[in-house]
Write a structure and sequence with these properties.
This protein is mainly α. It has 11 helices and no strands. It has a domain of about 110 residues.
Length: about 200
């Protein structure tokens, strides 16, 4: 009986393996082998591949896990609120998540910059939280944004947020950082101009 208990395999859920993979990617980078991830998770390579048939499947699943957790934090917004107010809310929620999840924040950036995530997973991740891009599209339609590609503006916002986290700005400084960002990506409107969003 004792022998049977010793050899009985420990069950590991997908979530547990992904949590261990996140830690390994954070400490060693995203180029680590699946064997090292399996060892960190305390499972055999076979068990790992039963859950994730390929390293691509593992990377995509981890990316989507991070995006889903982030989307849960971002939540919903009241469309009746002014756009700048909603953008500030979004900024505060993104910042709170990044500060509470430094490993996930770094690994998400590594995966994003490496282009290792499949196009299908990127699309699925975008679908989990459309609020940030929808706000930018709304601002663009209203003529509020500087005449720059949205991809550039998104990268600028992400970099700005990362720097706030990296330099550990306090609440007042982070609020000022948002205002600097908002003033930088929007255009000045002349007094009396129609600021309504086209319908």
């Amino acid at each position: 009986m004792y022998y049977q208990l010793m050899i009985r395999p420990t069950l590991h859920s997908r979530a547990e393996i992904l949590a261990d993979a996140l830690s390994v990617f954070f400490s060693d980078g995203i180029g680590v082998s699946t064997a090292k991830i399996a060892a960190a998770a305390g499972v055999s390579n076979g068990t790992l591949f039963n859950q994730f048939p390929t390293k691509q499947a593992l990377i995509d699943a981890l990316y989507l896990s991070i995006k889903t957790d982030l989307a849960d934090t971002v939540g919903e917004f009241d469309d009746a609120d002014p756009l700048e107010h909603r953008m500030r809310q979004l900024w505060n929620r993104l910042l709170a998540w990044a500060r509470s999840n430094p490993e996930a924040q770094l690994v998400a950036n590594l995966l994003h910059d490496s282009d290792l995530v499949s196009a299908e997973a990127v699309a699925a991740g975008y679908a989990t939280s459309r609020a940030p891009m929808e706000m930018l599209l709304e601002a663009q339609a209203a003529g509020l944004l500087a005449d720059l590609p949205l991809e550039y503006l998104v990268a600028l916002i992400r970099h700005h947020l990362d720097e706030v986290v990296a330099t550990n700005l306090d609440a007042d400084q982070a609020d000022l950082a948002f205002q600097v960002l908002w003033n930088g990506i929007t255009v000045r409107r002349s007094p009396g101009a129609d600021h309504s969003v086209p319908r």
